[in-house]
Amino acid sequence: MKKQIILIMTDTTRKDMLGCYGNPKMITPNLDRLSAEGIRYENAYTCQPVCGPARSAIFTGTFPHTNGEVTNCVAMGDNIKTVGQRLTDNGIHCGYIGKWHLDGGDYFGNGICPEGWDEAYWYDMRRYLEELTEEERLKSRKSSTSFEEDMTEEFTYAYRCSKRAIDFLEEYKDEDFFLAVSYDEPHGPSLCPAPYNTMYDGFCFEDSPNYEDDLSQKPLMQRLWAGENLHKTREEINCPSGKLSLFLGCNSFADYEIGKVLDKIRETAPDAMVIYTSDHGDMLGNHRLTSKNAACYKEVANIPLIIKGGEAGKVVEYPASHIDLTPTILDYMGLPIPKLLEGKSMLPQINCTDIRINDEVYTEFTRYEADHDGFGGLQMMRAVISDRYKLVIHLLDSDELYDMEKDPAEICNRIQDDDYSEIRNSLHDKILEQMNRTRDLYRGYQWACRSWRTDKDPTWSNDGCTRQRENEEYEPRQLDYDTGLPMTEAVRTKISRNLKR
User: Is-annotated flag, keyword Iron (predicted)?
Assistant: First the structure.
């Protein structure tokens, strides 16, 4: 049997923007059907709720702090290999169509096809803009264009991505392949034609108590982020607006475009694995916040994830993570999973949803974007999420702990609650262990020095280990500093060089 995978991705789609996730007001019939044919993950998390860093984890299998893309507009390291490069080097054809956001350029990319992907189908947003006249470029960046009489489906980026994806599926239907289709929609300016441009006029999300979260027990950054919303009523925050209506209309338009690709998959590659996800969500007023930033609230970090290719019509409640997608793709293709990757293959779980892959998953943040002076600037965050609890450490601010079973709206911050000290400290240890295990560039004793962790004494040496990089598929084995010879163990206890001298 041919081995074919299609990964479909949208930008800024919350879980509750899909009907299959329990919101019947959302018009997403194509993704709802995919969910019925596959597995819907309820507790899947992005590795960082910002476009570029989130994508870096999806397509490399390493966290942003490892691959170097810790913020938008900063490229990954030159020695970082994407899943496309790894698959191409093993004879599997790879196509990437759509938003990339991994080359360190501006929002649109630099138009250059990276190593490992088919040049004939490469189509980042810069290539889309280069097809347009100057006047059309201006129109493509204005939400108001959606309401002009001459606005058509064919003008949108989503339409042009779908068309190329359909062509790819037809051309390579008899081969093993991996195809990524990455829509910018419904991200602003949320261009979409009628009837999508007005179909959500007057819409409000279901009421939630977190619209009235006063953020008084939350990090200062969140209160600064909320700004004027701190003084608004829940009706003012979650109210009908043209911007929300267009955003949700564009979300349904993206589903329509995805539907065309899914129909082609059913025709040409009916046995293919199909993965759908979004890079992150949007606060949309919950907790009085908008857009995304250094937060791990479910609205922005708990993303939709649907996988068709194993059991059908199942729901997985166990924690899941974008970090596991690249290992899963390699495993499905019958390739070994490199030591360097920081996730696990989900393939056993896809074949049997009773299998647990993760006891907890991790999310991080460094800053929103290098090009922006605002949006909070440097915001160092590390978070761990288990079945029930969520611990969020803000290195330069106060911290958060939520009992998601008792407090699904994530309002009551339990970080100073003695009744939760045991679970809090256990999760804190897991974050510190994860930072060491993944060679987190920003790890250090400062993460252990929290006002609520009185039993944790900081030490200069942290856990006292040297942890060298293992990437021997593409690099020579690294050398031991003390011997100059190839290292025998990547992780080993350090010996004080001062004592040796």
Answer: no
